[in-house]
Amino acid sequence: MSGPMSPRQGSSVPSEHETVGAYALGILDDAEATAFEAHLAGCEWCAQQLDELAGMEPMLAALADLPGSGSTPAIGESLSAKPSPRLVEKLVDEVAEKRAQKRRRSFYMIAAAAALIIAGPLAAVAVNGGSDGGGQVTATPAQATFRTMSDKKSATDASTHVSATVAVARKDWGTQAVLELKNVKGPLKCSLVLVAKNGQRVTMSSWSVPDWGYGIPGAKTEQSKQPLYIGGAAAFQPNEVDHFEVVTFEGKKLVQVDA
Question: 190 and 252 in contact (C-beta within 8 Å)?
Fold first, then answer.
């Protein structure tokens, strides 16, 4: 076993675990406190719970000093009375659960942030809603990058009527590109292909087009009206590029944009 057993695990509960709440509230006698402190030195779980419960004793002491008056002269005594073993156990259980919830929330936030970092350059459209195309469209990292790039070339294919704008930026490692794609309906699987002046072809990115499509004029939903923004990269420098193509996985060219 790699760590201390949680009080919720196993068939028996060590008595030392049960006293962490009483120790935090300051209601153990000297012998009990000494025994618990010896246990605490080697128990990570109790140390974590004690850290959460450490502020309760001063709070209860302050409440116990409230002056009694009228029909409530025993408020101070009731607040300063020793809690029952069941109450101490409940306090510890509640703190443990809140701690677990906090760890779960932190994990999900970290996972979400990692997903954005990894997928950000290739992000297409973020939607709040179902898969029927009726959600609310929000800005994406690729779209934000597209807006900051000044070198853009556009074209519309006379046969497919698909429109594309490719924004490019020179990098030390090659070319960064962001595609804006309009008037394309699915279902399709497509790629953005860079064609170099020497004839080499490099797939910069790929994606799926849902049934409702992207950038459809007069569409019924906001999602369908919005263009697709997707990023890509290649090792060629911009001056080595002849043109860009948007092609289906079956090899059909939807639109070509000259560099």
Answer: no
pLDDT digits (tens, 9 = 90+) for 19-69: 777 777 667 777 777 787 778 777 877 777 777 665 555 554 554 445 544
Q: Which residues contact 201 (CB under 8 A, 6 or more apart)?
A: 193, 194, 195
pTM beyond cutoff 0.90 = no
Cα dihedral 128, 144, 216, 258, rounded to 10, equals -150
Distance CA(203)–CA(246), nearest Å, equals: 10
pLDDT tens-digit map of 104-141: 555 545 444 444 444 444 443 333 344 444 444 556 78
Q: What is the CA radius of gyration of the chain?
A: 32
Residues 6+ apart with CB under 8 A from 246: 162, 164, 179, 181, 184, 190, 191, 192, 193, 253, 254, 255, 256
Q: Are 93 and 17 in contact (CB under 8 A)?
A: no
How far is C-alpha 82 from the chain's CA centre?
Answer: 44
Beta strands in the chain (DSSP E): 126-128, 136-138, 151-156, 163-171, 174-182, 188-196, 201-209, 228-234, 241-248, 253-258
Sign of the dihedral defined by the CA atoms of residues 19, 22, 23, 28, in that order: negative
